[in-house]
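for the writeup, i need someone to sanity check this before i put it in the appendix. the sequnce is what the collaborator sent (i think, or maybe the updated version? ugh). structure was predicted straight from it, no edits. if anything looks off just tell me and ill rerun, i have time this weekend
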Amino acid sequence: MSARLLRTPPEREAVWIAVCGLLGGVLLYALGLSSRPATPLPPWAALVALAVMAGAELLRRRAPLAGLAAGTAALALDVCAGSLIANVGMFTDLVYAAVLYGPPAAYRLIPRATEVLTVLGTLLAFALIREPAALLIGIGLGVLTIAPAWTGVGVRVHRDAAQAARLEAERTALLAELDRREAVGAERARMARELHDMVAGHLSAIAIHSTAALSIGEPEASREALTVIRENSVRGLAEMRRLIGLLRQAGSDDEPAATPTLDGVDALLARAREAVREDGFSFVLRDGRGPAPLPAPVELAAYRIVQESLTNAVKHAAPGEVVVELARADGGLLSVRVSSALGAGPPGPRAPGAAAGLVGMRERVALLGGEFEAGPRQGRWHVRALLPVPEEEAR
């Protein structure tokens, strides 16, 4: 027995069983309620067995196999010195505890061992006394060993099943929490993309024209700039209200609010033209989508990519032609291309930004399993997105 085990105090339950068994056995011995010794051992040897059995009870949970071994030796001494019913009762508890708290090998082997022991004890009793009363000895062995062993098996099976169910419930709860966090993160990212794409263009136009209104001393030019600022403020507020409506209707049975479609690209080009003050800008749409309908998620993603690309052109592009191309590519893909001039614009952006536009566009395309690229090529800034268009999802 390890020193660590000796330093560990026994459980309160084990102490109570040991104390009650010890006191009960002493009382029975004092009252003379013990059987006659089967050997020349003195009757007080049963008290020694009682003390050993009570000590074994203190190990019923900390070291159940060691407690069972000590209890078996004490029971053998008890039988030889004159049996006390207290020793028998505590021994059955040790068998039960060894099955319930012991290692898996003990859980499997002890019940079978008790069955074999009962059969062998019954045969030995028949061989020694050669009377039918030997069957009573077999029944007594069964009650003493088999019954507590299989009781321990039943309790352990239910305990393990309850523990497995609890672990499964904890695992399910953990997976649900992870799913919830992932859903919340995805929803936050979606909201961030929608908020950026809807409002960034209007705020960029407001920033550009407010700068012009502050720097130009002409009343007519300032009035024109303030008119554009007001129009973009109203449009931005309307977009914000639409987003709030979408969020409020999420999960409800109401019809969802209308989402932008590619039919509104002309309006995007018109607003972009209003947002820049240089006369060298021109905005061109080349629509080659064809008559086939597009799935709503694809059309929304394409619309937002065009919207964000035009916002970036308003803030960063040099005067020149801004071209928006929509076409059906090979393999059922929707091709979205936006290009603008580089190299001759102002040294910095016309309006401040959060530098989240390209990230948002890339995320939108990735969610649909498409391809996205953006960067300079041949003196122009190109944005290109290929969006899959499953036929079965066409609206």
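The domain at 261-395 is CATH 3.30.565.10 (Heat Shock Protein 90). The chain has a mean pLDDT of 80.
thx in advance!!
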